[in-house]
Amino acid sequence: DQQVKQNSPSLSVQEGRISILNCDYTNSMFDYFLWYKKYPAEGPTFLISISSIKDKNEDGRFTVFLNKSAKHLSLHIVPSQPGDSAVYFCAASGGVIQGAQKLVFGQGTRLTINP
Amino acid sequence: DGGITQSPKYLFRKEGQNVTLSCEQNLNHDAMYWYRQDPGQGLRLIYYSQIVNDFQKGDIAEGYSVSREKKESFPLTVTSAQKNPTAFYLCASSILAESNEQFFGPGTRLTVL
User: Fold this and answer.
1) Cβ pairs bridging A and B (under 8 Å)
2) In this predicted structure, what is the pLDDT of residue B24?
3) How many CB atoms lie within 10 A of CB B35?
4) pLDDT recorded at residue B97
5) CB distance A108 to A7 below 8 Å
6) Residues A75-115: tens digit of each pLDDT
7) Touching check for B106 and chain A: CB below 8 Å?
8) Is A57 exposed, middle or buried (0-12, 13-18, 19+ CB in 10 A)?
9) Are B113 and B12 in contact (CB under 8 A)?
């Protein structure tokens, strides 16, 4: 049962253009969403997050949009740069369970920025 | 420099052997987590610990064991009971158990021959 889905395994974008990565979720109890970036053979690094009380959060070139009715969020990267080439994971949190916040991750989308 | 260290980066073991993966953090974080990543899949939670001497099973705990004797350390043992142990293992920590943001270590790639 995949509660968080990233339906595009890969995405290729030209440098300078906008990259849009999508994520869908099924559990309406999720109230916090995060995006992580991962390079090969390294651990994921936190990129940006959004609470369910908001529909948009912006940080420099990165903007996350949340559509609660559609259970959909997206990450926009503008303008895309070669260093953005990585795997991006969407993650969702549904509150405290047994004393900890458990994150549920999507499968990841490999973003390639072409010069 | 604060951070999470995992060692070794690459590990090879023969089938049937237990192996322990190290995870240390000097961030003074309360909660620690172990994830497994397989090709084309997201991170799946193996075990987590919100406080010293306490830990909980995640979604795929079978064949794994952990301990949390110190706040800084959360080693993971992959036992011979784990049917498909070859994977990339990631350790993470967070400030408080209720924190949403988790910080990850560099990972250990385990290959069972």
Assistant:
1) 79
2) 97
3) 28
4) 58
5) no
6) 999 999 999 999 999 999 877 666 677 889 999 999 999 99
7) yes
8) middle
9) yes
**Which secondary structure element, helix H or strand E, spans residue B71, and what is its range?**
none
Residues of B in contact with A96 (CB under 8 A): 97-98
Contact of B108 with chain A, judged by CB distance below 8 Å, is answered with: no
Residues of chain B scoring pLDDT < 70 = 1-2, 97-99
Choose, out of A52, A101, A105, the residue to mutate when testing the contact with B (most B CBs < 10 Å): A101
The Cα-based distances of B97 to A93, B22, B50, B59 in angstroms read 12, 21, 5, 17
**Which residue would you say has higher pLDDT here, A99 or A54?**
A54
pLDDT in tens, A8-53: 999 999 999 999 999 999 999 899 999 999 998 889 999 999 999 9
Per-residue pLDDT, B99: 62
Q: What are B57-66's contacts with CB under 8 Å, separation 24+?
A: B58/A102, B58/B33, B58/B34, B60/B36, B64/B34, B66/B34
**Residue A101 C-alpha, separation from nearest chain B C-alpha, in angstroms:** 5
Tell me the two tokens of residue A18. 């906008």
Alpha carbon distances (Å) from B84 to B8, B36, B42, B108, B112: 19, 11, 16, 15, 9
